[in-house]
Fold this protein.
Amino acid sequence: MTTPTREPLPARFCNLDRLLHAMAARKLDGIVATTPQNVFYLTGFNAIAHKSDEPRPYALVLSRHAPEHPVMVLADYYLATFLAQPSWVEDLRPFRAVMMPLDLPPARGDIERFIPRNATGAALAGARRNYAFDMTTALRGALEYLKLDRGRVAFDDPGFGMRLGIDTLELADGYDALMFARAVKTETELGLLERAARLNEAAIRRSIGAWQPGASWRDLGQSYARAAVDLGGFVRDPGAMVWSHPQGADAAITLQSGYEDGEIRRGTSVMFDCHGTLDLYCWDGGKTWAAGDEPSAEYKRNADATATVAEALLEAMRPGARVSALQARAREVYRKAGLPDSAGAISFFHGLGLSHMDLEQRTADGKANGDWVLEKGMVVPLHLLVPGGERERYWLEEVAVVTESGGRPLFSWGFGPLTGG
């Protein structure tokens, strides 16, 4: 795989109709998004130099009653970002932010510092006209303009809504409405997720190719991270590889802490479950490799059984399938495939998109959404794990798009074990 070119995304790629449906079902007049993933989802705006627990210097305001006129409130220094990434959001309302001196009085002309010399357009004219000297003033103005200042408005961060202190608002939680929309992908999103999956597949293969006898788990993790970044992706601290790998006969199910650094002995079952992002869309998944291509007999048995289960599950991953039924199906197929401890095998599922969930936690009627139902257009990783010692455990995680004819895999490498060390 060659390094993907970073290009502007379409002006709108979110599932707006589904979001409006979710808002109507929850009797929401409007929604205010401030978390980075939701703002990106609704606008295409991907803020650089911002950390997750900092006060968020941007907010997207959307009215169900005027859905084609969303308003974006943002720090003045982010204004030019909208010149690089087209957006259907054209009402931009910047506010004077941290770069401007506190010891000097604010001036309307401050905004000119952040507008490129030759930039033109109605959005910039509106930004100049609506420039405010603080975020609260800008956001209050946007809510009043959209006639939401006395409505039922959901915030994806209710704490942010509470801190605004607008007593006339009926404050609601917007998490589930947005997750309901994000659960079913648009064609653009499917393309982004397929591209991310291809990057992950290529990075895993490069990592296997870089292995040498005597290499440690830290060496392998660093090889994967380098490969992912070289291919244009991003990984996060403490690492991109999720599973920990107990040595010997220990069959405990543990996750990486970032401190593992023992040697990877020949024949060790290495479970690649790798996370990262490309254009903020997540990749996930992987398969198992016997280090040095020296698998044990138990490893081969578990690999064959897991491939059979994966095929059965993909066939069953159709709209209307419930997760508990898929898990029961996995256990049944493992048993028929001759796995000695079929009840001990683990299967689980989640959504995938801008997060490793992309599912509402509670439905519009307030019910918990634990045993959720697959819908057409969802992207759902299926996870299969046969626990065991270092030479027998086996793992497979395929990422699939839910279609009427079953799950469509995003990986190209099939269900057999990885080879090529």
About this structure: The domain at 16-183 is CATH 3.40.350.10 (Creatine Amidinohydrolase; Chain A, domain 1).
